[in-house]
Every structure is written in C-alpha cells, then in structure tokens.
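Subject: two folds for Thursday's group meeting

Dear M.,

Sorry for the delay on this. The cluster queue was jammed most of the week, so I only got both jobs back this morning. I'm pasting them in the order they finished. Each block is the input sequence followed by the predicted structure tokens. Could you check whether the formatting survives your parser before we put anything on slides? The first protein is the one we discussed after the seminar.
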Amino acid sequence: MSAIAYLNFDGVAEQAIDFYAEALNATEVKKAKFGDIPQDPNHPLPENELNMIMESSIEFAGGKIMMSDILPSMKAVTGELVKGNHILISLVFDDKQKLQQYFSSLSEGGYVIMPLSNTPWSSCFGMLVDQFGVHWKFNSDADQFLDQVIANKQ
C-alpha cells in the first residue's frame, strides 16, 4: 500500500498535469476526461465539463501524484475549491541534484517560501508554492533525522 497526494483543481487540472509532468520528468502520465466515459442520458454533463479531467496520475522517480478537476455542476455537493496550506507534497530524495532540479522547475511561476539550504534537520531542505497554489516541501534526509530524534528519546 502507498499514500498518494491527490490534488483537485478548478478547471486547470490539464495544465497542472502538463506542468508537473515536465517539472518532475514524469516517466508516465495517464489522464481521463469526463467526456471519455459514457454519460448518463438522464443526467448528461454540460458541454463545458466534458473536457475537464476526471482522473489522472503522473509517475516520477518512484513517486506518484493524482489530480482531477472539480466540476462546476458538482460544487453544491463537493463545495468550492479553496487553495490553502492544509495539504502539501513532500519530496524526500537523497539525490540533492534531483531535489535542486525539481525545486527549480516547480518554483517557476510560483514563489519560494524557504530556499534549499542546510538546516538542523536536513542537509538540503526547502519549501515553495507553485503556480497552482500547491505547497511543496523538499528534504534530502528526513528519515535519518527522524531516526536520530527517536533514538535520542529512548
């Protein structure tokens, strides 16, 4: 079993998929639009929603992110999309060069909260918000830090 970050967008999921696939050097990209599946003739989707992303995934460096659009016709049920810092994607790689590459690519059009740097908890840590408002955390050695703190508590 694995945990996968799942991102919802307000009609821009396809643009986000393309951006993340390029920024993270995706090895596989899958996407299905609402118009790709049979429609219920009693409740057809409006024409403007058929081209929106129903489900997608990008795979990169052993990780996976899934994304979709929230349909305007479903917002009464799902609620409005609210951008915020309640969810983030954490990339943990020992390869600092790869972290730097991802950090640089994902920061395009967004803003850096904390540049990649050496910290007491990581030899390469940083945070940013990308152009879609998604928060990212980068860490080269999170596991070693956690193991050390836990060992010191015992």
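Second protein, same layout:
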Amino acid sequence: MKKIIFAFVFVLGTITMHGQELKWETNLDVAMKISKKTKKPMLLFFTGSDWCGWCIRLQKEVLQTPEFAKWAKKNVVLVELDFPRKTPQDAAIQKQNQELQQAFQVRGYPTVWFAKASKIDGKVNFEQLGSTGYVAGGPSAWLEGADQILKNKKS
C-alpha cells in the first residue's frame, strides 16, 4: 500500500512540476510572433547563464519559482538572451543577442526589459516598457516591480 501511495505522490508531483515549466524563447522572431498572437509584451532576460552570479541568483530566487511561472504564463512572452562564456551558442543567436544588447543599451547582467515589438518594412521596432534586474526579496518583491512596469504602460 505504501508503494502505491508513494507512486501516486511521485506521479502527481511530476505532473505539477511539468505544469510549472516555462518556455523561454531564444529566437526573437518566434517570440515576436507569439507576442503578437497573444497580445502580451515580451520579457527580455539578458543573462550570463554560466558565469554571472546575480543572474543565477535571479533564476533560483525568482524565475524558477511557481509564483513566477503562474505570473509569466498570464502576462508575458519569455525571451532568454544569453551571453555564456563556456557554453557553446549558435552563431545566429549570438549575433541576435549582441544586436539586442546594443539596442537596449544593456551594460550589466542580469537585465530584464519588458517590451513590445513590431516589424515595419522588415525592420524591428521596439516599444520599451521598462526594465529591472535582480531584486532582493524573492518572487513577490520582483513581481511587484514587474507588475508596476506593465501597469504604468497600460494606463
């Protein structure tokens, strides 16, 4: 009987974890299509995933929590723009990320921009809604700031 209960709890836990997994786009064109279709702004996460301590901390304390997952699914399209030092990266993604780093004038990591994008005559135009970075206090503090950025642009 204990084995059956354990198996049930394990399966239920696995299903719950998969329900909270988020899809982070790495290709801006794909993210823009999803953003347009869902009418949600993009959350552009500029990170150094394999070397930036504050980026790793933001991931663990906020971006990998159930609270963030629930909020993100409702409010934004997630885009990871990574600048790894050790992990190999596709040349096209590397180029795209560098161009976006310049466009958003990112000077430090982690930086999170909220933006809407549109293509006019083949050129991407961004409406920058606001930015943030690491915020101490866990998901509730971070999400409060994110909500404020999104709320200010809706009014």
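Two things I noticed about the second structure. Residues 30 and 79 are 10 Å apart (CA to CA). The two ends are 57 Å apart (CA to CA).

Cheers,
T.
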